[in-house]
Amino acid sequence: xxxxxxxxxxxxxxxxxxxxxxxxxxxxxxxxxxxxxxxxxxxxxxxxxxxxxxxxxxxxxxxxxxxxxxxxxxxxxxxxxxxxxxxxxxxxxxxxxxxxxxxxxxxxxxxxxxxxxxxxxxxxxxxxxxxxxxxxxxxxxxxxxxxxxxxxxxxxxxxxxxxxxxxxxxxxxxxxxxxxxxxxx
Length: 185
What we know:
- By secondary structure, this protein is an alpha/beta fold.
- It has helices spanning about 5-20, 35-40, 75-80, 90-95, 115-125, and strands at about 25, 65-70, 85, 100-105, 130-135, 170-175.
- The chain has one domain (about 5-45, about 55-185): 3-Layer(aba) Sandwich (Rossmann fold).
- The protein is globular.
């Protein structure tokens, strides 16, 4: 199952903390790693019952929606920690969804062609009120389809200069796992 290295995760949680969002769109939410961690670390502690069973949705101060192309990734964490999960293509779905304080793309755009990635970035950037947060490797990091998910194949490489036009509310976090394979599983 795809995941992010610890350094990227801690940096994303730090950026989320700074942004203080009331709504987050997690594009390419995968198996729900970031939704879980964001809900766990950024939601008001009164949401968690003392016996740690299920968070009390009625007390949630933050809305977290996810979009995932590969339906087999969707599991119990999505139903527990996300307000809504949509199965579909990120570009198609982001264009029909409303505005969010934060749009998050964790290890997503490298799976798209450069043109499709640019279209997704533009659409996501237009729909954020506070921040667009992105995690991707620097440059092209070859990676073939994993776990029968053809969407996992890397199709493009990105550099900080590719994001120069996104000046307002944009944070780029490098996924170092392509350079240092021991960082992620």
